[in-house]
Design goal:
Elements: H1 2-6, E1 21-23, E2 39-42, E3 45-48, H2 49-63, H3 67-75, H4 79-90, E4 99-103, H5 109-122, E5 128-133, H6 136-146, E6 157-161, E7 177-183, H7 192-202, E8 203-214, H8 220-242, H9 245-257, H10 261-270, E9 273-274, E10 284-287, E11 292-299
Parallel strand pairs: 1-6, 4-5, 4-7, 5-6, 7-8
Antiparallel strand pairs: 2-3, 8-11, 9-11, 10-11
């Protein structure tokens, strides 16, 4: 990876323009446009932008109680290793206590990893994570998870129901956070540029945006095997394990509709972040041949 990284020049931001869950009103329209004529993808279907949020909400209402099982099915259980690698790469707590925001993080697994990493590696008990999700049922699962931990009812974790595209400025203020994470969530948002714009707004100058997401496989053989597993096995597992084929079918399709690694890296720069060069080891790091990727950017 080092040899590849040496050939990637740094890219500047583009010059183109439940119990204790706080709840904020959020609309179903993207902030970029309130026109009902605009369309977006919901899996392989084309839907009105103002429909997608409710459709995605239906999916996650359905899978919330089995979310970890869902991720085990879609990644053969490897998502747990990817999330470990994601947080290890970010090293929360290494430079002192951090204020973090984990978006689309309802079940709390990234937040828990952040707090554990800071405590176990740097004896840091001051780093905090604000978990944000648009889905109350997912947040309820995260709250339940944290009730089993030492962080429950401490200032280190809080849960907030809000839209990643329109974080309420009164609560999520400008230049407030040291780290913004979003894992396996941004592809479900209606208008990704609005999510990235909000991430840029709430981060401090010099702070890090980090996204873990399913991505594009480059090796043709691995890609063919992954497609076969995704479209044949995952929906079947959804039927067997959760009695819900349609939600799992959507999740597979949403992965295929997500932008490629270079396309997403450019979207991150368009939002105002600086990234590494457009290659594995630069703007992003591929995991398992590109089945998933870690993207990072720095607010400048």
């Amino acid at each position: 990876m080092l040899s590849r990284a040496l050939h990637c020049t740094k890219r500047p931001p583009s010059r183109l323009s439940l119990p204790v869950v706080s709840r904020n009103n959020h609309t179903q329209n993207s902030p970029a446009s309130s026109q009902s004529s605009r369309t977006t993808s919901f899996g392989f279907k084309t839907v009105q932008e103002d429909e997608k949020e409710s459709l995605v909400k239906g999916v996650f209402d359905s899978v919330a109680s089995k979310y970890d099982l869902m991720n085990d099915a879609t990644s053969l259980g490897v998502h747990r290793l990817w999330k470990d690698a994601f947080v290890d790469t970010l090293k929360p707590g290494r430079k002192g206590p951090m204020r973090c925001i984990d978006v689309a993080g309802g079940t709390g697994d990234i937040a828990l990893r952040i707090l554990d990493h800071a405590r176990e590696n740097y004896a840091d008990r001051e780093t905090s994570v604000e978990v944000v999700d648009i889905n109350a049922q997912m947040l309820a699962e995260g709250y339940k998870r944290f009730k089993k931990t030492m962080y429950h009812y401490t200032p280190q974790v809080s849960f907030h129901e809000a839209n990643a595209q329109e974080l309420p400025p009164s609560q999520f203020q400008d230049n407030a956070y040291d780290l913004y994470t979003i894992a396996f969530g941004i592809r479900n948002c209606t208008f990704i540029p609005a999510v990235l714009k909000e991430a840029h707004r709430v981060l401090k100058p010099g702070a890090t945006f980090a996204c873990l997401e399913f991505s594009k496989v480059h090796n043709p053989l691995l890609g063919a095997l992954y497609d076969q597993y995704s479209f044949s096995i995952i929906p079947l597992l959804g039927t067997i394990l959760a009695g819900d084929r349609d939600s799992y079918q959507y999740l597979v399709e949403s992965i295929r509709k997500f932008p490629s690694q270079p396309e997403f890296a450019q979207m991150i720069r368009d939002a105002g972040f600086a990234t590494g060069g457009d290659c594995d080891g630069g703007a992003w790091t591929d995991l398992w041949g590109g089945i998933a990727s870690i993207h990072t950017g720095v607010k400048v």
